[in-house]
Amino acid sequence: MTAKGPILVINPNSDVAVTEALSRAVEPFRLGGGPAIECLTIAESPLGIMTQRDVYEAALRTADLAKARPDASAIVIACYSQPGLDLLRTETRRPVVGMQDAGVLAAMGLADRFGVIAVAEGSIPRHLANLARMGVMSRLAGEVAPARALTVAESGDPSASFDLLREAGTKLKQMGAGAIILGCAGMSPQRGILEEALGIPVVDATQAAVAQALGRVLVGG
Amino acid sequence: MTAKGPILVINPNSDVAVTEALSRAVEPFRLGGGPAIECLTIAESPLGIMTQRDVYEAALRTADLAKARPDASAIVIACYSQPGLDLLRTETRRPVVGMQDAGVLAAMGLADRFGVIAVAEGSIPRHLANLARMGVMSRLAGEVAPARALTVAESGDPSASFDLLREAGTKLKQMGAGAIILGCAGMSPQRGILEEALGIPVVDATQAAVAQALGRVLVGG
Amino acid sequence: MTAKGPILVINPNSDVAVTEALSRAVEPFRLGGGPAIECLTIAESPLGIMTQRDVYEAALRTADLAKARPDASAIVIACYSQPGLDLLRTETRRPVVGMQDAGVLAAMGLADRFGVIAVAEGSIPRHLANLARMGVMSRLAGEVAPARALTVAESGDPSASFDLLREAGTKLKQMGAGAIILGCAGMSPQRGILEEALGIPVVDATQAAVAQALGRVLVGG
Amino acid sequence: MTAKGPILVINPNSDVAVTEALSRAVEPFRLGGGPAIECLTIAESPLGIMTQRDVYEAALRTADLAKARPDASAIVIACYSQPGLDLLRTETRRPVVGMQDAGVLAAMGLADRFGVIAVAEGSIPRHLANLARMGVMSRLAGEVAPARALTVAESGDPSASFDLLREAGTKLKQMGAGAIILGCAGMSPQRGILEEALGIPVVDATQAAVAQALGRVLVGG
Amino acid sequence: MTAKGPILVINPNSDVAVTEALSRAVEPFRLGGGPAIECLTIAESPLGIMTQRDVYEAALRTADLAKARPDASAIVIACYSQPGLDLLRTETRRPVVGMQDAGVLAAMGLADRFGVIAVAEGSIPRHLANLARMGVMSRLAGEVAPARALTVAESGDPSASFDLLREAGTKLKQMGAGAIILGCAGMSPQRGILEEALGIPVVDATQAAVAQALGRVLVGG
Amino acid sequence: MTAKGPILVINPNSDVAVTEALSRAVEPFRLGGGPAIECLTIAESPLGIMTQRDVYEAALRTADLAKARPDASAIVIACYSQPGLDLLRTETRRPVVGMQDAGVLAAMGLADRFGVIAVAEGSIPRHLANLARMGVMSRLAGEVAPARALTVAESGDPSASFDLLREAGTKLKQMGAGAIILGCAGMSPQRGILEEALGIPVVDATQAAVAQALGRVLVGG
């Protein structure tokens, strides 16, 4: 049996700190006999994918990077905007996983209805638009932001934001959510303690995306 | 770091041959450092889950078995009827994965629209009802059965049915499917060669369910 | 012409007081030339159907009771959880009516959009899940609970709760409801005065279920 | 207790033979202690409601007739086009029941998904439009017409059309229908034998409408 | 090339002041080489279309007027209730445009999701019902009324209501609206300044309806 | 009053013959007092937009061209793939109209349900995906291809394909379509004769897009 090529987790912006945080989040998926998981940064990209033009340009660069790595067994696009998801799927037969979609699908596998904790009110419409595109609005119990908007740094620091996240999660439970999606990769370090406090599954989208890619790579897909 | 308990793959009927086939299908997910994967049969059940009463009784037995195994880290209900999925979710905080749902969610993570190959025309309405319950009908490109109904035995034997499956898959591609779900666990041995022939991802529901469970167990959920 | 067998109204819990209240609510449907209407309690059940396990066990008992009464012409499952609705439909060709579904269908026959008065905020997600399963969310104007949660006893007592129910109903009218469903069987005694006060139809689910069963039995179905 | 006024079943066209057939179909609902059921013809209308202008004019006449009969306790609009359904609901607080909607709602109370037997291919799009308006398309298993179009006279005569109806019903069962609606009032006399042959409930829309009206009138609504 | 007949903009009530305002709003569409645009009042109608009976009667009068003007190339029904939209479409092959539908369709052509500014809370359920009928609820970001209800006169006067409209529009932007529909013809004079202030397209339904009619007439439809 | 800048109709490929055909189709919209309508080709593009990479690259070029023409009052993206529709909308406040969406919206303004004539079976899934994205599937009566696939050249030539188009349109009418969209720009020259033959509106998407742009430009939007 031949070894599987690595799963590439592509951070489509050029912020190396983000890439390192992604690598920490997916550490549990590096297993004996399983594929390597490489987290990459795109140096030519801006520090953040902010505008729609950034998304289009990042899409082409992500697709170029995927082409340049024929050894890889799967591609994870590690950005909520999922730049190039449709493009890569036409250019490679390898599994291509979008981070936002993966978080939603994982939550749908855990409960009838799910909730999302947004990092700020302003992100909610964009998330709802993606749920509409996915055709899964009927599974959404609700999406709420913490009582005050969090910076990305605060979102990962329990001393700065755990009470706010727990409060948001409790509200979503009352709205009927049986599972919670963290609506910002920065919240990842609080996944476990939040799940413990709420008593229902809490999903980190990066982990969900890598789990989905792993599921395909292991069966040879 | 404490060891993870095993993932239980529960075959809710009493047919040991089915359980053994499940175990072969999930072999690729037994990895160094990952949880064990145990496939179990429920001896008190009938040989097959055929009637709605079977489903209710199997649900209670599956829930009892889950209770009797507090060491397990996750439960996979390895039957298309998913007996007890909602019941187990109220009785345990561990991940509970239904096989049919998992196959659909995996396919939704691979393509905009998916198709299903049924083992026979008669299964299609029941599958559609589950897609409606899941709220994902808008993602379905179509479901088709082979030109003649297959026995479960034939469904896993390329010499008996590969041409029929390829024909059904080709039709689904023409209907807009970007990924295919095998609508019967028996087809599992043909997953790889069918994917190769069709050029789009082909999903085996048992594998999808275990991959989903694994994704939760590895992050501690 | 042969006499019709009785309509069985099965209270799947063991609380006789509930069964007696059901019998009072359906009194208007006992007509000359029509079938008898028998309200039954299941003695082996707990006093209330509280957990999902209760629902599964009540489903099997309800199905057993239906089997034991081949003389009955129709079965009404008089509990909002509708235990065994799908099971009974596979075991008998007689009409099987679920109380929650019947209330919703009756309201849909009276107005374009309906509202629901819940007994407490906590019931709303469960009701919404059932409306989603029924595929009728687009007909829902809204669901509201009284300003403070009611006990079942209070819910049927005008001096304790009429003002709260009228307030909730008025809010639903403002949200576009053209008919109101009482979201708790306990509210039944206030149906008429609430309808009078609001000027739009108010539906009691038990009565709706028996009316639906009667409609089938009279035509021989 | 005051006597209930009659339920008016208004045939909005001027064909007395149709009105007489309606009266025969609703005979089982004339019960001791229940309201009278009067079937009326609108003499000023054309023999059939054929054009959209006919519908608008019939709507106003139906509303006038309802106004002229304040003694009536409920109004059934006995025509698939349901002329004036929305108009009457703004002009009276009495229950106003549309025949087509009532048939669909009755079927939804009997099975997860329903099928419709149309009298001819040409009626199907109009029926589908009404199901879309009702927001219940997800409950439709399918609608089929007999292999050859039937006249209204043939549709009620077993010797002329029973085999065709059974064939259509069998096809709908294969498509997943758990209940069947007769898509033409003319088929009414074959309801019972068709139900017997198919083994699933068969719904006559006129009867469903009167049953629904009766359910409201008996509780005082 | 033959000259095109005029586009008729029919105000189905008898209020001439309304008709004059309509004529001012559509002035930009009177172009060299294009059709004339005539705005008409129906003298026999009441001053306002208030009841459902008004709607039915206005429908017949609007259809009669359309018949009496075979020279017209298209008909715009300039009333949010769109009386006779379905009737006219069966009686003429000329384009028949409803004002409310046209506003929504224009907004759907400008942004993924749209918002509506209602003149008062009370109009919102009626608008939502029309969006449901159109099957476009998934495109709605939200509908809001100004903080206090406006009279029709106030709604067109910037000194009386511009701040309120801007506030409502800002709220809709936050809810994800990429385009705004003025939910009352009276607001028409403020369209341009509101669009300027909000930075997203603002749609006047009368103008949208005439633009749509013009698009058909110019190509000979 | 200042003159309006031109409406740009951007053909995102480099095939000048296509651009010239677009210009002929929109000739009726060049009116006295209205804006000019300029049809442009993007020379750096390939001859046809075939791959998803073509779409991404065309999107960036279309956005660049829109930026380079600040004098233009509106942008029409004259390609069924609508490259850059979302990108342009974030980079300009001018109206940006996609050709495929515009055709659908125009049809929705003319009839309850619409049909589409595809140029070949293979285009249907892609069209359906766009209707799903638009959230308007419930308005679709059906989409059919001619009995044999047409070349683009044949699609515009009555002697080669009129009978096939009429046959397809007739089938769509039977499926409930009240308006027809030409699913390929090449069919444009047959719009009028097909409308005449079918007796229901036939929509050309290029014309619909320009009409929509014109409607915005004339009111100053």
Structural description of this entry:
The structure is a homohexamer of 221-residue chains. Chain A has 221 residues and is of the alpha/beta class. Chain A has two domains: 7-99 and 207-218, Rossmann fold (3-Layer(aba) Sandwich), CATH 3.40.50; 111-200, 3-Layer(aba) Sandwich (Rossmann fold), CATH 3.40.50. Helices cover 44% and strands 14% of the residues of chain A. Chain A has nine helices and eight strands. Chain A has helices at 16-25, 52-68, 85-91, 99-108, 124-134, 152-155, 158-174, 191-198, 205-218; strands at residues 7-11, 37-41, 74-77, 96-98, 114-117, 140-144, 179-182, 202-203. In chain A, the strands form two sheets. A four-stranded parallel sheet of chain A has the order 2-1-3-4, sandwiched between helices. The longest helix of chain A is centred in the first third of the chain and has 17 residues, at 52-68. Chain A is globular. At the A-B interface, β4, α4, α8, β8 and α9 of A face α4, α8, β8 and α9 of B.
Key words describing this protein structure:
homohexamer, 221 residues, alpha/beta, Rossmann fold, 2 domains, four-stranded parallel beta sheet, 9 helices, 8 strands, globular, Asp/Glu_race (chains A, B, C, D, E, F), Hydantoin_racemase-like (chains A, B, C, D, E, F), amino-acid racemase activity (chains A, B, C, D, E, F), Putative hydantoin racemase (chains A, B, C, D, E, F)
Derived from helix and strand composition plus strand pairing, the structural class of chain A reads alpha/beta
Shape of chain A: globular
Low-confidence stretches of chain A: none
Radius of gyration of chain A: 17 Å
| Percent helix of chain A | 40-55%
Q: Strand order of the main beta sheet of chain A, please?
A: 2-1-3-4
**Total beta strand runs of chain A:** 8
String of helices and strands of chain A: EHEHEHEHEHEHHEHEH
CATH topology of the largest domain in chain A: Rossmann fold
What would you say the CATH architecture of the largest domain in chain A is? 3-Layer(aba) Sandwich
Overall mean confidence score, pLDDT of chain A: 93
- What is the number of helical segments of chain A per DSSP (H or I, 4+ residues)? 9
Oligomer: homohexamer
The domain count of chain A comes to: 2
**Biggest interface and its residues per chain?**
A-B, 50 and 48 residues
State which percent range the strand residues of chain A make up.
Answer: 5-15%
Distance between the termini of chain A: 14 Å
Pfam families (chains A, B, C, D, E, F): Asp_Glu_race
Organism (chains A, B, C, D, E, F): Azorhizobium caulinodans (strain ATCC 43989 / DSM 5975 / JCM 20966 / LMG 6465 / NBRC 14845 / NCIMB 13405 / ORS 571)
Protein name (chains A, B, C, D, E, F): Putative hydantoin racemase
Family (chains A, B, C, D, E, F): Belongs to the HyuE racemase family.
